């Protein structure tokens, strides 16, 4: 299966040395980052635990990107899924008007656009569609180290995906978002948690928290901390998928009702994650 980057067939567009020239927002410094619990509490890395339901109506998607070729590529990829319909696509300047006109279930929003940037669009949508009226919004980026990732999640984005995400995972992320879940590409999970994990002074507390887990649960938590899906963990450990789901549910319960991303952070702080796609310099699977 071809990736969106292959479909585009053109080199990635360089951005100005100063990204604030594009986004027209002040750079955040490390000291200005929001608290970890504020950033990641509602989110989890996407997995293949949500299956398409052909009996339900199609998931309605609006794609917002300043590049027409990107929009066309996403239309083609998502259009191949029987349960997903791209009802409109547009640039940043038309984003709010388009979303209000079509009322999609999911909005795929480029975070960096020259006319109106994704963070601005996200906040305008929150104002125009308060509460339950707001569709699930996932931010799109070319870079897995995008400095505005944490800000987007804090501002209400339900996910963050790379533009070269595998087509199958892209469609799966849309299904999870439409079902009310969160979708973080495993490659960018490290960017979310990295600034909070290094030098954290609560590693002892994290080790105490995981001390009540069984050896098997600690092994599962270590792989979960690498951003792996339940299916991948099952394959790694030679276990049934349902068994892994049971382990994950037990782990999250024992850790006080954490979600997957919070548990991944805890695994990092407890020293359980020694390798994987979320470690600095690690290569992506697939």
Task: Give a short overview.
The chain has helices spanning 4-8, 20-23, 36-40, 68-79, 95-102, 118-128, 149-154, 167-178, 186-197, 203-210, 215-224, 230-237, 241-254, 260-269, and strands at 59-64, 84-90, 106-110, 136-141, 159-162, 183-184. By secondary structure, it is an alpha/beta fold.
Question: Which tags fit this structure?
Answer:
286 residues; alpha/beta; Rossmann fold; Arc Repressor Mutant, subunit A; 2 domains; six-stranded parallel beta sheet; 14 helices
Mind explaining what this structure looks like?
The protein has 286 residues and is an alpha/beta fold. The chain folds into 2 domains: 36-193, Rossmann fold (3-Layer(aba) Sandwich), CATH 3.40.50.2300; 201-269, Winged helix-like DNA-binding domain superfamily/Winged helix DNA-binding domain (Arc Repressor Mutant, subunit A, Orthogonal Bundle), CATH 1.10.10. Helices cover 44% and strands 10% of the residues. It contains 14 helices and 6 strands. A 6-stranded parallel sheet has the order 2-1-3-4-5-6, with helices on both faces. Helix 5 packs across helix 6 and helix 12 (230-237) crosses helix 13.
């Amino acid at each position: 299966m071809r990736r969106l980057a292959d479909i585009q067939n053109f080199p990635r567009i360089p951005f100005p040395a100063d990204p604030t020239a594009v986004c027209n927002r002040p750079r955040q410094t490390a000291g200005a980052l929001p608290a970890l619990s504020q950033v990641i509490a509602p989110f989890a890395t996407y997995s293949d635990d949500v299956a398409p339901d052909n009996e339900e109506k199609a998931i309605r998607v609006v794609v917002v990107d300043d590049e027409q070729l990107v929009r066309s590529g996403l239309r083609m990829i998502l259009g191949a899924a029987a349960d997903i319909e791209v009802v409109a696509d547009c640039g940043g300047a038309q984003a709010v008007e388009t979303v209000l006109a079509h009322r999609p279930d999911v909005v795929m929003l480029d975070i960096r656009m020259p006319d109106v940037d994704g963070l601005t669009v996200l906040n305008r949508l929150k104002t125009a569609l308060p509460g339950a009226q707001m569709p699930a919004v996932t931010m799109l980026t070319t870079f897995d180290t995008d400095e505005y990732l944490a800000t987007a999640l804090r501002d209400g984005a339900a996910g963050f995906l790379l533009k070269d995400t595998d087509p199958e995972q892209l469609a799966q992320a849309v299904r999870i978002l439409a079902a009310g879940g969160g979708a973080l590409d495993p490659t960018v999970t490290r960017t979310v948690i990295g600034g909070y994990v290094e030098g954290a002074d609560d590693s002892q507390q994290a080790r105490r928290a995981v001390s009540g887990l069984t050896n098997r649960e600690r092994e599962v938590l270590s792989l979960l901390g690498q951003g792996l899906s339940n299916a991948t963990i099952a394959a790694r450990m030679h276990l049934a998928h349902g068994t892994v789901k049971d382990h994950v549910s037990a782990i999250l319960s024992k850790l006080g009702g954490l979600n997957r991303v919070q548990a991944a952070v805890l695994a990092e702080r407890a020293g359980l994650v020694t390798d994987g796609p979320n470690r600095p310099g690690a290569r992506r699977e697939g």
